[in-house]
Amino acid sequence: MTWILAHQRHFGPYFLDGTIKDLEGKMKAEFDRVATDEMKENFDSAFYDFRYSNSVKYTHPAARAEDFQKPSRLQLNRPQKDLADILQVQDGLTVVSKPVMDIIQAAAPDTVQFWPFEILTRRGQPASDKAFFAMMVLKPCNAFRPDLSVEGSTREGSSGSGKWHIHQEKKAFLTGLVIEIAKTGGAPIWYEERIYQNPIFFADELGEQLQGGEFKLPPKFYQCVTV
Length: 227
Prior knowledge:
alpha+beta; six-stranded mixed sheet; 6 helices; 25% strand; globular; Immunity MXAN-0049 protein domain-containing protein; Imm11
């Protein structure tokens, strides 16, 4: 079996309602470091282009993030107690507790990038006793089999895209997705290039380790089918 972690859609302990506080400043500092005189003279448009071209798609990154591309501080917009060990924040970024990071890093040292991540209350205090780390999965796979998945679980995207939407992300549909395990190349953790929502997939052993630990895991963490 394979495990799938789908993104949460409602704010709570698994999807934090908060604001990234430091990324804009990091981008501005890097822009100031590399910008030409002409770019500085046309700051508004040049900085917009710089920020856009250097933004990282955390759910399906093209490469490892540089330091100036790494958000590392989130301030909550509302009180939130008992934070989960795997959670999402804005822009699809996944954040995990240190024990979860240790397990994943041991299984996939070369295909997942981690960096420290602070979660603060509205008053600027730590929101949890847990240490958290941002997590970016770098391994793409093309192992999804829409032709074998439960009928109605997916729908094809725009013509010619070759990509698929998971229909409503209900449990029956998520657990009915089929992964051709031989096409993962033995990866312990990956994302599927042909699924729009970019859920994270875990090989059975890694998923079992997380599920068997004393972790607070998101409700949309299910086993799906492998062939």
